Inverse folding.
């Protein structure tokens, strides 16, 4: 916005960063219906990933006389499901203030509307470009609808589906035309001086792509890829006779193996970096680098990696030629030439190494320590999405590039089934706690010398908020609040108010049947009076469906005893329980001790 930067946080709040580095928080926000989402029954379900619900991109169109049209691609909760939406409003600016008008207009809603459970908004894509005066180009990611895993079973190339496509959308009517298909998660979209369209695309494990976009092109996802599923598995629906050939579809101009996690893309001008004129500048998240792509027309000549040391979410060129990098955290870095280059008397156009980095640190309203941060766990949820969930899953059955973090509290570092750790953890005698997680996130190399996890610039306060969020995900901890079990055996029993809580550590899926049996009938059936004996175990048909199954690697069952204060139950007394687990069975309990 002129010499300033308009910034939007993941949950849709705005800030203006001025030329001198000061930050002004603006009123108004992207309409996402967050309050209703937080009140929904599935919001706290471990299978709903809060951080994936977010703003994907913003774009400004100057109208003149201090007026701008602001476009945003973002998620919106309808009350039942989640839409990927394109919206717009007006921004007014005078000498004293910047005002984001509250009258947002919905231009386009993508199909389908997505359920909360299984929501994969991290694959939203969502980058925009203007296309003439009356149209926008919007590239939408697959949102996990790919046939590799998940709930969606229809073909991804279905014409009724808007995911995984490049769309040309009329600003006034919302009418959409499909220009190209076959994208996984394109977070970068740019047009060069010759009019060529370029897009980055996140591959799965391996295979990030730089694509030259052409009308009618099919770029192959999810039927071909240079990558594989996380964990090294080749999905059955990959059609390459040899994985990585990309046969039968438009091939990328360049691909990265392993994946640096590509995000935004920009085309450099010559104001500050004349030797980089017309080069493509591509940001990365996991690799924490900027890639400079030298091209000749549409052919890539070479790719130079420039280490930055922070995850880069977005990139834009300032009017004076500085390159602004927006990090996954409260920081913007400006790249410019060093003072000795800018000095007219000593300017040397061939002095390619005279680069100066000016950084400013500002806390956007969503982050800890600014505005209204909410609870520690709310801030930690957002920070986890910014820094952690690219590599770490909260699903016990799925590792990412890093191990899953289900049940990490109390687990010994370097020990999780199905994941091979680096040698740095071989001799590390550490149990993960709030303190050890905080120390590791703040300085991974000092905590575990030789670790493959690089520093992401997380400060101590941010690391502590992430640790608190991870602890809050431990469902057993939420139930028992740090209490010790009253009875310890293969299945520990906690006595909490008027409930019995059964827990087993490191349980397998098969243990859930035994857990349910114990939760209903915690005494030997042969010890019950004849008229109280339960029906045969084989006749119990019960679907655990997440909440009765495995939480954080632990089998859990909670059985309320509403009419019997636990302190008054005597040894050997039978206690009938109306409804049993999930209020659908009747059971008998007897405390042996």
């Amino acid at each position: 916005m002129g010499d300033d930067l308009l910034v939007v946080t993941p949950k849709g709040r705005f800030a203006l960063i001025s030329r001198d580095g000061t930050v002004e928080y603006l009123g108004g926000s992207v309409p996402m219906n967050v309050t209703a989402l937080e009140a929904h029954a599935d919001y706290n379900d471990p299978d709903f990933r809060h951080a994936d619900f977010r703003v994907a991109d913003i774009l400004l169109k100057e109208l003149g006389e201090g007026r701008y049209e602001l476009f945003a691609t973002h998620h919106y909760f309808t009350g039942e499901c989640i839409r990927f939406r394109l919206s717009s409003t007006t921004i007014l600016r005078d000498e004293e203030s910047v005002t984001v008008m509250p009258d947002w207009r919905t231009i386009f809603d993508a199909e389908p509307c997505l359920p909360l459970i299984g929501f994969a908004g991290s694959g939203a894509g969502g980058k925009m470009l203007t296309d003439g005066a009356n149209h926008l180009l919007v590239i939408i990611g697959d949102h996990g609808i790919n046939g590799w895993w998940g709930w969606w079973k229809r073909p991804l190339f279905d014409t009724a589906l808007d995911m995984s496509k490049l769309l040309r959308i009329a600003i006034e009517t919302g009418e959409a035309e499909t220009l190209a298909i076959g994208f996984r998660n394109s977070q970068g979209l740019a047009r060069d001086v010759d009019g060529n369209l370029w897009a980055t695309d996140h591959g799965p494990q391996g295979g990030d792509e730089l694509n030259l976009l052409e009308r009618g092109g099919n770029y192959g996802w999810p039927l071909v890829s240079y990558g594989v599923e996380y964990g090294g598995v080749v999905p059955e629906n990959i059609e390459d006779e040899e994985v990585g050939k990309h046969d039968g579809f438009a091939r990328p101009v360049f691909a990265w193996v392993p994946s640096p996690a590509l995000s935004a893309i920009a085309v450099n001008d010559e104001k500050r970096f004349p030797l980089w004129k017309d080069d493509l500048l591509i940001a990365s998240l996991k690799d924490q680098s900027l890639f400079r792509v030298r091209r000749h027309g549409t052919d890539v000549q070479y790719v130079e990696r420039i280490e930055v040391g922070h995850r880069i979410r977005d990139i834009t060129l300032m009017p004076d030629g500085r390159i602004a990098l927006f990090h996954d955290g409260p920081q913007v870095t400006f790249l410019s030439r060093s003072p000795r280059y800018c000095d007219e008397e000593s300017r040397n156009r061939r002095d390619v190494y005279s680069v100066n980095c000016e950084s400013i640190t500002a806390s956007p309203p969503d982050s800890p320590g600014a505005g209204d941060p909410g609870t520690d766990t709310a801030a930690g949820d957002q920070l986890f999405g910014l820094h952690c969930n690219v590599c770490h899953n909260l699903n016990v059955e799925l590792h990412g590039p890093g191990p899953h973090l289900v049940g990490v509290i109390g687990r010994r570092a370097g020990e999780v089934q199905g994941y091979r750790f680096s040698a740095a953890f071989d001799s590390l005698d550490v149990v993960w706690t709030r303190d050890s997680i905080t120390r590791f996130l703040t300085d991974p190399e000092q905590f575990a010398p030789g670790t493959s996890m690089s520093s992401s610039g997380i400060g101590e306060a941010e690391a502590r908020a992430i640790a608190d969020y991870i602890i809050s995900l431990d469902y057993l901890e939420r139930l028992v609040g740090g209490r010790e079990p009253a009875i310890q055996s293969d299945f520990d029993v906690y006595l909490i108010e008027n409930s019995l809580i059964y827990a087993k550590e490191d349980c397998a899926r098969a243990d859930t049947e035994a857990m349910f049996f114990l939760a209903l009938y915690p005494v030997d059936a042969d010890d019950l009076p004849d008229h109280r004996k339960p029906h045969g175990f084989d006749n119990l048909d019960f679907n655990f469906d997440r909440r009765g199954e495995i939480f954080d690697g632990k089998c859990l069952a909670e059985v309320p005893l509403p009419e019997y204060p636990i302190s008054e139950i005597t040894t050997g007394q039978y206690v009938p329980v109306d409804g049993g687990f999930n209020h659908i069975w009747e059971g008998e309990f007897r405390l042996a001790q």
User: Anything to note?
Assistant: DSSP finds eight helices and 30 strands in the chain. Helices lie at 34-39, 339-342, 376-387, 434-442, 444-447, 460-472, 475-480, 511-520. The CA atoms of residues 333 and 359 lie 4 Å apart. The two ends are 71 Å apart (CA to CA).
